[in-house]
UniProtKB/TrEMBL annotation:
Residues 1-23 are annotated as: Disordered. InterPro entries: Bact_HTH_transcr_reg, Chorismate_lyase_/UTRA_dom_sf, Tscrpt_reg_HTH_GntR, UTRA, WH-like_DNA-bd_sf, WH_DNA-bd_sf. Keywords: DNA-binding, Transcription, Transcription regulation. Coiled coil: none annotated. PANTHER family: MANNOSYL-D-GLYCERATE TRANSPORT/METABOLISM SYSTEM REPRESSOR MNGR-RELATED, MANNOSYL-D-GLYCERATE TRANSPORT_METABOLISM SYSTEM REPRESSOR MNGR-RELATED. Residues 36-104 form the HTH gntR-type domain. This is GntR family transcriptional regulator. One of its GO terms (biological process) is negative regulation of DNA-templated transcription. Pfam families: GntR, UTRA. It comes from the Bacteria. GO terms for molecular function: DNA binding; DNA-binding transcription factor activity.
Length: 277
């Protein structure tokens, strides 16, 4: 979506009705910056040890039993941690041999594992937003107004940028962020490129985000964006829209990202809850 789309009625930023919607609801504020699941902590430790040279390419990491003993963790926790490394393409399981280190870096692009709102914070902490533009734009298109829950003529802050990861010289995605008029004086500095914009809004204005609505769909890479992210026009891409809502269910921020398909993957974990008794 562009500033022209905000005005001319093209509605390019409006997600299709058939898009899947995922809602992550934040409970107390402590959950926003809460601890990551234990298996993710173990996985990160193993990644760090592989990259530091403790487990070079071609060597095997400790067995599940040994890792359980070293970390004081359950077998299921260790197994899930190793599974993360397998999915990253850094290790491979071989019957009769063990788990062998395959690479020092993850294969392909950035992989996002989403379970709670704090994972959005980690995603931003793991990447850098290179700001390309910051301006105000009037919202005119009915479809965009509906998405933002905005009235025609409202002036929203519009930020565009490229999100980067240290693992790749090419951008992970192009991002466009629209921020509610009440917060259009938001200050975003280069020193805060690792800080989520919704967190900056909370810090600078005392607002509180309690819900994030996310939609993902497959698209053809727009030519204008392809040039910015060094990708081929009309190649496969992922379009991700996130709307950040406050207690009054108002859209405080809406972010639209376009990822080249080979630089981003998305994973969720669902756990079944059993009723006691």
């Amino acid at each position: 979506m562009s500033s022209e789309a905000l005005r001319d009625g093209s509605g390019r930023g409006h997600p299709p009705r058939s898009s899947r919607s995922l809602i992550f609801t934040q409970e107390p504020m402590v959950t926003v910056l809460g601890q990551q699941p234990r298996y993710m902590q173990l996985a990160q430790t193993l990644v760090n040890e592989i990259q530091s040279g403790r487990f070079p390419v071609g060597s095997t990491i400790p067995t599940e039993f040994e890792l359980c003993e070293q970390f004081g963790a359950s077998r299921s926790t260790v197994r899930e941690a190793v599974k993360q490394l397998v999915q990253l393409g850094m290790v491979v399981r071989q019957a009769g041999v063990g788990t062998t280190v395959k690479a020092l870096r993850s294969e392909g692009g950035y992989r996002q594992v989403m379970q709670q709102l704090s994972d959005l914070h980690r995603y931003t902490a793991d990447t850098v937003l290179q700001i390309l533009s910051k301006e105000t734009a009037e919202v005119r298109d009915p479809a965009v107004c509906e998405l933002l829950k905005a009235g025609p003529g409202e002036t929203w802050l519009r930020i565009t940028g490229l999100r980067r990861s240290g693992e790749s010289p090419d951008p992970i995605c192009h991002t466009e962020v629209l921020i509610q008029p009440a917060f259009r004086s938001l200050v975003v500095s280069e020193n805060e490129s690792h800080v989520p914009i919704y967190t900056l809004i909370e810090m600078q204005f005392g607002e509180r985000i309690v819900e994030v609505q996310q939609e993902i769909r497959a698209i053809a890479m727009p030519a204008a964006i392809a040039t910015l992210v060094n990708a081929r026009a009309r190649s496969p891409a992922l379009w991700v829209c996130r709307r950040y809502l406050n207690r009054r269910s108002e859209v405080v921020e809406a972010a639209f990202s376009i990822h080249p398909a080979d630089r981003f993957s998305y994973s969720e974990t669902f756990q079944r809850e059993w009723n006691a008794g």
